[in-house]
Specification:
The protein is of the alpha+beta class. Helices cover about 35% and strands about 20% of the residues. Strands 4, 5, 8, 9 and 10 form a 5-stranded antiparallel sheet that branches. A 3-stranded mixed sheet has the order 1-3-2. Helix 4 links the parallel strand 6 and strand 7. InterPro entries: ABC_Gly_betaine_transp_sub-bd.
Length: about 290
């Protein structure tokens, strides 16, 4: 499979979408009736969404479609689906993480429901070797008194900022936004040297398989309850591409499934190859997703 860059201009604001094509060209062959039609999927570059989007893209390719997958910021991803530049995404964290985006764009997209139900958890995460078990007991365990976050505007960052504002013992603490990759890099370095660190964490994520970590108890509930990851599609997709719509509507898997793909990618496997490996090992589940399209 080859990758290419595709520029797309939004109708409501000027932004450039860097589309990574999983497609094999106009002559792509598959087991379905895609006939070389192109499907545009968007996602946010979190490990969970890299895994799920590549799996869904591979399934659609196997059905005969060309698929472009485009990494975007949270708000732009939602906007792209809302204005029809993207056919859909499998990356909607609800009700908390993408609450702001859902409030802005929710009435302009179709929610196909959870593809990973009640499996997503947010929280303040520390290495198991740190002698603290609750947010309300954080003091000077982390010398810089900071919580390392991911991208600014992400729901987990906003929740962490609310946490710092709510807990009296965190009055001198701050949340430092970075990126998902930068955060996990800092986490790995700290653990390698057995140094203290606090991060904005979420499950599912490969870091819980790689490292011995724990969520801090959250008696004030500021980090929220368990979330689900939803599939969102543009209005009109069911009429325009009924096969694609049915596959996206049927797409649902488990935390073990997504962890398997994420960990393989983190171990160095190309995301497309990791997706193909998982599909090969889980064809029965994939057949359930494509049953209505065949």
């Amino acid at each position: 499979m080859k990758k290419k860059l595709v520029g797309m201009l939004a109708l409501s604001s000027a932004f450039l979408l860097a589309a990574c094509s999983n497609g094999g060209g106009d002559d792509a062959e598959g087991g379905g009736n895609g006939g070389g039609d192109t499907v545009e999927l968007s996602y946010v570059e979190w490990d969970t969404e890299v895994a799920s989007t590549n799996v869904v893209a591979q399934v659609l390719e196997d059905m005969g479609y060309n698929v472009n997958i485009t990494p975007l910021d949270n708000a732009v991803m939602w906007e792209a689906v809302a204005n029809g530049e993207s056919d859909g995404m499998v990356a909607g964290w609800l009700p908390a993480t993408h609450e702001a985006q859902y409030e802005e764009f929710g009435d302009q997209v179709e929610d196909l429901g959870p593809n990973l139900p009640d499996a997503a958890q947010l929280g303040i995460v520390v290495p198991e070797y740190m002698d603290v078990d609750s947010i309300e007991d954080l003091d000077d365990q982390v010398p810089d008194q900071e919580i390392i976050g991911i991208e600014p505007g992400a729901g987990v960052v906003a929740a962490a900022e609310d946490t710092v504002d709510t807990y009296d013992n965190l009055s001198d603490w701050e949340v430092t936004p970075s990126s998902s990759g930068a955060m996990t890099s800092q986490l790995g370095s700290a653990i390698q040297n057995e140094e203290p660190i606090a991060i904005t964490g979420w499950s599912p994520h490969w870091m819980f398989s790689r490292y011995d970590l724990k969520y801090l108890e959250d008696p004030e509930g500021t980090m929220g309850d368990a979330e689900s990851i939803h599939t969102m599609v543009r209005e009109g997709l069911e009429d325009d591409m009924p096969e694609v719509y049915s596959i996206l509507d049927n797409f649902e898997w488990t935390e073990d499934d997504i962890n398997e793909v994420m960990l393989e990618i983190e171990d160095g496997t190309d995301p497309e190859e990791a997706a193909s490996d998982w599909i090969e090992d889980n064809q029965d589940k994939v057949d359930e997703w494509t049953a209505d399209a065949e």
